[in-house]
């Protein structure tokens, strides 16, 4: 499914109910992923940077879990000292965690396909 179709589907879901901000955040998550993908991924593989963990013998999804644990540590520090970290807010960190969570699901699914005969 292409990006335009996905956006239309998300917009259509707004009419079904739920909090309107939830759907706005879904679109922000998609935009964040697209922007970071542009900055980090190479070789026509949108997850190439995350697959680098495999060069160390670590499944890519587990590499993402490490990144999520780093973000969790950041959230813990931000909650203790609000405003101390100028480069990333609680909201920024939570958005990154949302993106990483979805990417971990994708990579976990790929790993399971590899391991299934």
Per DSSP, what share of the residues sits in E-state strands of 2 or more residues?
under 5%
What's the number of domains?
Answer: 2
Number of strands: 0
Q: Helices and strands: which structural class?
A: mainly alpha
Cα shape: globular
* End-to-end gap: 27 Å
Helix content: over 70%
| Main sheet summary | none
Flag low-confidence runs: none
Number of helices: 5
> Mean pLDDT score, rounded?
88
Account of the 3D structure:
The protein is mainly α. Helix 2 (20-40) packs across helix 5 (90-115) and helix 4 runs antiparallel to helix 5. The protein has two domains: 1-40; 43-117, no CATH class. 71% of the residues lie in helices and 0% in strands. It has five helices and no strands. It is globular.
Key structural traits:
mainly alpha, 2 domains, 5 helices
Summarize the structure.
This protein is mainly α and 117 residues long.
Topology diagram in text:
Layout: H1 3-13, H2 20-40, H3 48-51, H4 60-80, H5 90-115
Helix pairs in contact: 2-5, 4-5
């Amino acid at each position: 499914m292409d990006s335009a179709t996905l956006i239309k589907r998300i917009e259509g879901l707004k009419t079904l109910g739920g909090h309107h901000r939830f759907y706005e955040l879904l679109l922000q998550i998609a935009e964040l992923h697209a922007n970071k993908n542009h900055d980090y991924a190479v070789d026509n593989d949108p997850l190439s940077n995350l697959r680098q963990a495999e060069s160390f013998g670590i499944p890519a999804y587990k590499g993402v879990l490490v990144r999520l644990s780093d973000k969790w540590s950041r959230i813990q520090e931000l909650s203790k000292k609000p405003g101390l970290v100028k480069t990333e807010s609680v909201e920024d960190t939570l958005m990154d965690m949302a993106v990483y969570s979805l990417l971990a699901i994708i990579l976990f699914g790929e790993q399971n396909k590899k391991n299934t005969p």
